[in-house]
Description:
Chain A is of the alpha+beta class. Chain A has a domain at 62-304: Glycoside hydrolase, family 65, N-terminal domain (Beta-galactosidase, Chain A, domain 5, Distorted Sandwich). The first copy, chain A, is built from 20 helices and 33 strands. In chain A, the strands form 7 sheets. In chain A, strands 1, 2, 8, 9, 10, 11, 13, 14, 15, 16, 17 and 20 form a 12-stranded antiparallel β-sheet that branches. In chain A, strands 7-6-12-19-18 form a 5-stranded antiparallel β-sheet, with no helix packed on it. In chain A, strands 21-28-29-30-33 form a 5-stranded antiparallel β-sheet. In chain A, a hairpin with a 2-residue loop joins strand 6 (83-87) and strand 7. In chain A, helix 11 packs across helix 12 (508-531). Chain A binds chain B through residues 23, 49, 51, 66-70, 91, 93, 95-96, 166-174, 177-178, 180-186, 196, 223-230, 420-421, 423, 426-428, and chain B through 23, 49, 51, 66-70, 91, 93, 95-96, 166-174, 177-178, 180-186, 196, 223-230, 420-421, 423, 426-428.
Amino acid sequence: MLDYAKGEGELENWLISETAFSAAGLGKCEAILCLGNGYMGLRSSTEESYFQEKRNFFINGTFNRSQKNEVTELPNLADSIQMDIRVDGERFSLEVGETNDYLRQLNLKTAELSRSFIWTSPKGKILSFKFRRFVSLEHLHLLGFKVEVKSLSGKVQFAFDSGINAQMTNSGSQHFLEGERRIFDHRFLQLTQTTNESGIDIVHQMVHQVSRNGKEIDFEPEMDMERRKVWLNYSVDLQEQDVLTIEKLVTVHTSRDKENAVGGYELTKMQQAALEELKRFALTGYEKLFEMHRQAWQEKVWDLYSFNVESEKGIDELAIRFAIYHLTIMAPAHDERMGIGAKALSGEGYKGHAFWDTEIFILPFFIFSNPKVAKSLLIYRFLGLEGAHKKAAAQGYKGAMYPWEMAWPKDGETTPEWGDIDIVTGKQSKIWSGLIEHHISADIAFAVYQYEQATGDQEFMDAYGYEMIFDTAAFWTSRLEWNSQKERYEINDVIGPDEYKEHVDNNAFTNYMAHANLKMAIYYCRELKEINPEVFKKLSKKMDLESLIPEWREKAANVYLPEPREEDFIIPQDDAYLGLKQIDLSKYKNQAKVRAIYRDYNSEQINKLQVTKQADVLVLLYLLEQLSIDGVRKFPKEVKQANFDFYEPRTLHDSSLSTATHAILASDLGYQELAYSLFQKSIEIDLGEQMDTSDDGVHAAAIGGLWKTAVFGFAGIRMKQGRLTIHPRLPANWRSMEFNIQWQGHKLHLAIRKDHFIVTVEGMGKVAFESFGQMFECENSIQVPLGANLHR
Amino acid sequence: MLDYAKGEGELENWLISETAFSAAGLGKCEAILCLGNGYMGLRSSTEESYFQEKRNFFINGTFNRSQKNEVTELPNLADSIQMDIRVDGERFSLEVGETNDYLRQLNLKTAELSRSFIWTSPKGKILSFKFRRFVSLEHLHLLGFKVEVKSLSGKVQFAFDSGINAQMTNSGSQHFLEGERRIFDHRFLQLTQTTNESGIDIVHQMVHQVSRNGKEIDFEPEMDMERRKVWLNYSVDLQEQDVLTIEKLVTVHTSRDKENAVGGYELTKMQQAALEELKRFALTGYEKLFEMHRQAWQEKVWDLYSFNVESEKGIDELAIRFAIYHLTIMAPAHDERMGIGAKALSGEGYKGHAFWDTEIFILPFFIFSNPKVAKSLLIYRFLGLEGAHKKAAAQGYKGAMYPWEMAWPKDGETTPEWGDIDIVTGKQSKIWSGLIEHHISADIAFAVYQYEQATGDQEFMDAYGYEMIFDTAAFWTSRLEWNSQKERYEINDVIGPDEYKEHVDNNAFTNYMAHANLKMAIYYCRELKEINPEVFKKLSKKMDLESLIPEWREKAANVYLPEPREEDFIIPQDDAYLGLKQIDLSKYKNQAKVRAIYRDYNSEQINKLQVTKQADVLVLLYLLEQLSIDGVRKFPKEVKQANFDFYEPRTLHDSSLSTATHAILASDLGYQELAYSLFQKSIEIDLGEQMDTSDDGVHAAAIGGLWKTAVFGFAGIRMKQGRLTIHPRLPANWRSMEFNIQWQGHKLHLAIRKDHFIVTVEGMGKVAFESFGQMFECENSIQVPLGANLHR
């Protein structure tokens, strides 16, 4: 059904196409073909309704808690897409009649979604339809829709209802008070919603322009309203070959918009300004507005992130562009008070909450491609210190204990307490991650470190970064448990990255990362005291650094760090893992359907098997080697290899966060085929044939992982010892890859071929990097030969 | 599409049939074929979903206010009807493939809904389906569903999801906290909802029994849960001619159930008891449970209300049975803390609120057929005194000012403030009735009087009735405005029954009824003091009757009662009406679509035209002649005739409350053809061809009006001077009518023929009645000849 090879010429590997209508595929397409601009995200539901659809429209950061016993989530806003179309009284739907020449396409380059087909109604009326739409990157509050209908079989009456429908819920949870509905001048629709707990006003607007054969039709549609809904009823007679064009412009504004955050907000003012803006948009018209949007995508996205791959499989290039497309539309580049949810703005899954997915899987793209956005996302976590303090206090700890799931920065934990059915008890299963998955605080500290190292952004460190590192370290000092028998600090009863293991003791990832967090604090504390005593003093006043430093030192020195086993270098994932029962996992590996093991075992049973849901020890190895902090452990290649060889067969990749890390390590270790096949697996997470995996939204971390696999894996770009390293290892069927990265304030272009790579620095400045053991310095451009090095 | 003549033999005029599937007719059929038992009401949505559907399931009295800026309403409960059926993977829907032999029927006698057809899937699989369901009158908490599917074209995989879905809303407003979901023994589903404001727990349960060719299939369905939803996935292979039978039993209990109202309520206890009850039901099985339900309908309904009409048009008899059916399922006979909403329990329209519809249009059926239920409904209003006091206090009045729309007895006004679009301003239009439609207090007083006169229930009067009459009279004393110029009391700025006239002064209906209310208070006060000084003392203490009595006397004596004009006997509907502009109303009269006048005029303009939405002065004349209270005005037949002749042409019957009154008066006046055609018009309100008029629910008052027209109109039964009067005037094409009524504790059977009628008294006792000026006394049975009397 999905075809990635429709693009030709300039559009090669830019088009995602659906070539036949499929009701079962609606959810997936809504998510992967989702439109957005960081401010808002619009699932690509069709104008006409289907039962399998999931209409979702979100604005970043407009969190609300619908009922007192639910958690805060991103509310599903009023729908403006739906059009109820009747052709001679018959309801238009592709489930009835006959459809020919069907094509739906997302053009990644222009961020436009189009859909066209010829439809024969059950009664035999034939019409051609063409739908187009965009969510403007140039005007963050604007959405544009255009429909062209042509009658191919004589006279028909074409009627449609179109308006704003705020009866939408989040799977039944209503987040909004019933709000004001207005129609101005019989034409401009306005509907206001206000979240029922957080009190955010949302003003939706809509205007139509309807023309026949290019001439605007001068008529007044019937106006209608009901509960939470306002709409217009249009009815037009079409003769054979008549073309009806409907342009629909929609805007949305909220009281949480940044311009409203700085005092003076009044709803009526916002409504009025929005109305005037819409009137201006209406004068400009769809085509001009679309052209401005297209230009913005060229300049702000594709010129900046330009990414080309020459490969036997076009989907490799397309998938990376798909990733960049989604990374662009998911990132609230305009507002540092917002983060990125695990499903971005493409579905209700995970409720818009930010997980470690952001820092470990998504942020690297921005750190290396658009550090401004990375900074903005880190500031969101800085603002989250307030919530992190609350969570720590609630659990009896100190410092910043970041919530496993974060919504409002000021709030603590927002992980729901109960999940899906437990097939044994018939009850809902308990979700433990909000209570005991603690590594996220260290993951965020790591991200601060990575950002600082890659950008050298001292201002960020002074204003935000140091405090985040110190505050998370402060948490770990309180979290560590003294084992007086073994005379060491332990971290017991946690969940590590491998969520198939609940309530484990001394998860290696958690312990090592907590240790690294402490070490980072010690390192940065020393640095700060030297280079900026003022800030040191300020922070010291806030959190008594002088007494924390010795505590950090003592605890870092005595935290238990599970050593690689002498005999085989295996680092135990946790205290119990290596002693668990082994079973034949072949029937669960490489399954199209994830979590296949649940058909045979329940959670409690899986907890007792030597099976890993997703990269755990391997993520640790991948992260540790990026840290060049005194005392943070580095492991030799043999350990990396041994653990990869041990854990990869035991890892089911039942989380979309898993394959990217394995692919990068496989590439590092010279397992090129495996690396490439894991990359393909990553592509399949959202672009594969499995039709229902993306129903709740795209997999934002896996999307970040696609970019990471290409750049960190195949291009071998990494930050090591505070240096840029470039160790390219192209997959066998890749002839070349070209892309941009940013490093220490410089913009670099990389062109990687089979036998060499070329680094070009934009503008002034020198950039040093290491490649396979050799140091290079590049002023304008440098070509580095590749050869025997490849497998070092 | 709807066929009322399918019933044959014993089932003649008992079946409402739909003979072809129509998506556009779904809403109407859901409402008019609605099932219920007074405890709950279930719209007859189909198992499979359609976009035009409106799934609604209500339990009487479970009011809730979803959001602080909305009004209290009856929440739409979790849905248990829906089944998502797939045949070899194709979603079953009558909108696709081919449907033959379609028949959907509501059997009014057994209160069973059935649906059968042969469906050919788009891929050519042929199956026969038969669906049956009932809402038990024997077990108020039980609903039963049965599906039989037969494969007619070889092997098919028949899969269905069935469960409890609490994602339902009231047009987008969610009333429930997310609640617990459980599956016991892989079989018994339980979902608990709690209203988010009023805190009512609702426990839904479901169990399936699935068999193939009569043998229960022993397999475990897949269990699933998501937000606000729990369900099972079944999949069964059928060979040609295999019959699959699915029995689904559903129960629902609430913390508001009467047994829970008396202390000791615990949710877990209710859940457990409900589970045990369901297990017992599951052992009994669908067929036995249905048989018990059928018997209950025979004994409690049709034996009691038995109603037969011999007429040329079978629909006449069917329509009255339809009315009795709905009057039965809408009445909360089990609980006096509940009333009847304007749409009963058959739709979201009017939010489950009780209007004057109950007292003036619905209650008479119960007063004359089942006084126990009438009493229960009046006690609901007695409990409502608390809210009526609140409303009075809020508006600066005294006594009991009943809310125009009533939900919780303790609350005051619950009329929404804003309604549909104003086509001129583009804003929502203001709803005035909650503020200024005041006649309802007098209407309720009238109902108390009617009940007392017809039943002689002194206990009721002592405990409830006197207080209601006195308290409403107390309200009027504060409501009356002294016009010092004219030296009279007036009632200005009101809406009378004719809601096309807002902000009128001295609406005749309101003034006369307020006057009657005062007179009733004086009358009953005198009576009470004599016959029960204890109660008098008690009430006197509560509301200082001794000082109220003179005030009532003085005000009643000086309230302005618009006199019939000398020249033509017309009673002015209000101060302005007779001076308003007259227009040609012929294009709006007898329109299938009501409110057609709104296409040409807006509310403000209609306010200035001599046009009446619904019976106003004529309802007054109809009510007044039933009151035999000293000083309450009676008008001679000439006045009745003059006003009928004047107002009927000016009345658009744009309210479903209108035709019944006009039909009764037409019958009284000997306009037999007109009376009959108005009766037909009343039938068409819910049973007519207009497909969308009942979408929001049936018209409970119009349904009450059908019975009233037949009994008060054609049979000429009325209460006059405290006496039963019987003035039959059968429509020309009616040969006879037979029915039961109750009068002063006696059960009477009436058999009315063209030339005589027979009254039979059940059991002991004498009943006196008047017929065309003659007094009769009946001990067992009496035959009264009819003849020249007919047109008196």
